[in-house]
Design a protein that fits this description.
It is a single chain. The protein is mostly helical. Helices cover 89% and strands 0% of the residues. The chain starts with a helix and ends with a helix. This is ATP synthase subunit 6. Keywords: Mitochondrion.
């Protein structure tokens, strides 16, 4: 569950950055 959360946060962060 923690890994999924981290991945989701990372993905959203990348989307926001790009």
């Amino acid at each position: 569950y923690v890994f999924c959360l981290l991945v989701q946060i990372y993905l959203t962060d990348t989307i926001f950055l790009h």
